[in-house]
Structure to design on (117 residues):
């Protein structure tokens, strides 16, 4: 029973972190992209999304000034594209290579920079 509950929580967490798994409309604003694909885990950027408490690793606070200053745009883009695992970050952070266009990922990177100011 405990194993089944853990599996269910994990599945719900993975589904919520990625938001909608269909391709976003090409004209979606950066705010809408973030809401659809990131806010389940990251909330409004503070790492306090509605499923954050179910994850093994708390989602990153994207507004944290020290983190914002320590990472490049390229790093943010790479993690959004490929997920956390290739960078020794949380394996629960999914990649969006097959869900978002390069332009949408770039928009998200810029949006994450803006919310950190």
């Amino acid at each position: 029973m405990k194993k089944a509950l853990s599996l269910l929580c994990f599945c719900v967490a993975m589904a919520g972190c990625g938001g909608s798994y269909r391709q976003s409309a090409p004209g979606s604003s950066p705010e809408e992209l973030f809401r659809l694909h990131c806010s389940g885990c990251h909330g409004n950027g503070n790492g306090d999304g509605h499923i954050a408490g179910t994850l093994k690793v708390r989602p990153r606070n994207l507004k944290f000034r020290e983190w914002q200053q320590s990472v490049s745009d390229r790093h943010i883009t790479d993690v959004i594209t490929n997920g956390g695992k290739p960078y020794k970050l949380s394996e629960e952070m999914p990649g969006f290579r097959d869900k978002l266009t390069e332009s949408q990922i770039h928009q998200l990177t810029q949006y994450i920079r803006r919310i950190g100011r």
Notes: Residues 28-52+59-115 form a domain with the Cytochrome Bc1 Complex; Chain D, domain 2 fold (CATH 1.10.760.10).
